[in-house]
Amino acid sequence: KVECEGEYLYINVDKKQLLNYGDKIYIKGEFQDPQKARNYKGFDYKQYLKTLKIYGTVKVSAIKVLDKNCANKLLQISNTVFLKIKSNIQKTYSPNISAIILGVMLGYTEQIDEDIREDFSKSNISHVLAVSGMHISYIIILVTNSTKKLLGKRMSKVIASIVLLVYMFITGFSVSVVRACIMGILSCMSFVFYRKSDTLNNISISALITLISNPYSITGLSFLLSYGGTLGIIYFQPIVIKIIKNIRIRNRKWKYVFLRIQRKCEKLIEIISVSLSAQIVIAPIMILSFNTIGIGFLLTNLLLSL
Questions:
Q1: Cα 56 to chain center, whole Å?
Q2: 91-105 residue pLDDT tens
């Protein structure tokens, strides 16, 4: 993928042609406009590429490198760090394991086998491979817990915000990363400035920044699942928890057992309520997009969260 006067193009080149990030190149080739959906409700490749800021494909017949290191310095450094992490992981683990680790750590899923990707999708844990709020909360907890004794609670939140900014650069500013990181940064900054964090305001600001960067993101599946799942948790989790806790059992023996479970398993009820709340919004999107839905989401998300 190359940038051309603010727009991005896919280019097909010979594998022997070595190109590095930041190269300024001259290309000669045929521009190909991406195909639109041929069938009603079919996959629209052109619309999909727009969500990635890509507006066409060029089959290159001649290419020449004019200059080196022409990209933004911050982006070049972040790309170097990403490639270093990727290289170390691939040297340490087998191809399948390293691909999953890269997906979990950095949201880089290009090398994950199609069968493995489908297994994650059927198990309704695809969000593990797309950096989400779970990943960001772990980063914030790790950074704050390791620095608050030395620097204090407020400064540890500032450090966590800086780490999240660096993380966004390394992971390439994907939709799910931007959403989760901005919400995490706003949450940290509210603590620093003695303000109460409002989740709905945080997600609104995050969505606004994402759509200013690329308005076509609103039609992308990543945007819909990422923001839809979060909104589902915000709006429906209190209702789901209330319904679970208000379940009435007439049999005295089982009623006593159920009440004991409720008191002992607050964490379990919270995990179940989060999964159900997110699925209320995500399920219709999955049905419309893939004509399928996983029914084992409660069990898989429960095992993942414990």
A1: 24
A2: 888 888 888 888 878
